[in-house]
Amino acid sequence: SIKVWSTTSWQAQQTLGPTHFDAVSDLVVGPLGAKFWSTARDRSIRRWDAATLECDLQVANAHADSVSCLSVGASETTLFSGCRDSTIKVWDRDLRCKFTLVGHRGPVNALLAVDGHLFSASHDRTVRVWRVDHF
Q: C or N: which end of the chain has fewer Cβ atoms within 10 Å?
């Protein structure tokens, strides 16, 4: 589950719902601060409104296996998700899959979108750099 914590008392103030059905594997905050996204081993991706802390969009079966990591583009219009099945998916602002990046030979562990490039790290012991400024 995703909890909101007080930084003064270090106590959980709220549990966000609906909760994921399995362990949460990543959470990424958009650079504009209006949205954040979460993913879990249940293969789902959820988009949250940062002001209301409510889930406003979700995809139940985003990948064929557990989703391990997320990264969001600078304009918050593109989301990237990495999976244990070695793929990376490119999503639009409405969580519609626009493209699947294939190249890793092991689970994708980490993603970072910077200046039109996506860096991906994998269990295959490689880091790949993808040009993604056209998405």
A: N
